[in-house]
Amino acid sequence: MEDIISVGSNHNMGSSKGKKEDLYHVLHKVPYGDSPYVRAKHAQLVEKDPEAAIVLFWKAINSGDKVDSALKDMAVVMKQLDRSEEAIEAIRSFRGLCSKQSQESLDNVLIDLYKKCGKIDEQIELLKRKLKLIYQGEAFNGKLTKTARSHGKKFQVSIKQETSRLLGNLGWAYMQKMNYMMAEVVYRKAQMIDPDCNKACNLGLCLIRQARYEEAQLILEDVLNGKLPGSDDSKSRKRAQDLTKELRSMLPPPHLSDLLGLDDEFIKGLEQLMNEWGPIRSKRLPIFEEISSFRDQLAC
């Protein structure tokens, strides 16, 4: 009987220990095992030691241990340490060791790194290349959706959403080069595919920089009036309000007719009446001109 209790007790203790380990890995998002990659993730997520994590990620890459994930994760950690140039060189040098399926995610990391380093031309070139893959039907491995991850959560992304996102990034890159006409074209394409408030604000800014204030105002009003997805986002609304304020400071002072509250049709009617009268030779009305002429005849 004692032996049975002992065995059951050991089993419960082992089960409890296993559950604790499972909970530990779930909470810290750390994979199982003791390989270089696992130890690198432990240093990154649990010990919060990025420098040690980079050393271990290098070991994982050199030993062929989860190279796809190790290279991408190492580049992200390097970016956090302001070692973006080093991260770019690492991806360029070792992406050939990675699988075909990992190339898209490595490109996404590269785009962020180029943005961080101010390498706008490289960013534009890479974004165009990724968009070309979509047009040729080679993105997402030929599928219409893919599984993406953000802040530890997985979600589905459609090819339309990805196209719009890439176009938005391309528009922003053109804005950094002050090529507002090209940025406008790209943002309009993005909004046609998958509209949102953030890209609408950027499009509005492009138009403001081109002194096309009325067009910009209409777009920003759509954001403020809740006509676009994401209109309830406080940051987007705040940005639209700030841009509207900037826009109003650049507008010319209102015309006299606007101040008087006169509408366009009324003004046009007055102009038409004055044109029918022809050039006025005197400040007196035509009827008084006729009376004056008749009086002159009588005087003769």
Automatic annotation (TrEMBL):
Species of origin: Cajanus cajan (Pigeon pea)
Sections of the chain in a coiled coil: none
Similarity section: Belongs to the MS5 protein family.
Entry protein name: Protein SULFUR DEFICIENCY-INDUCED 1
Protein localization: Nucleus
Keyword Coiled coil: yes
Database matches in InterPro entries: MS5/SDI1, TPR-like_helical_dom_sf, TPR_rpt
Assigned keywords, A-Z: Coiled coil, Nucleus, Repeat, TPR repeat
GO cellular component terms listed in the entry, alphabetical order: nucleus
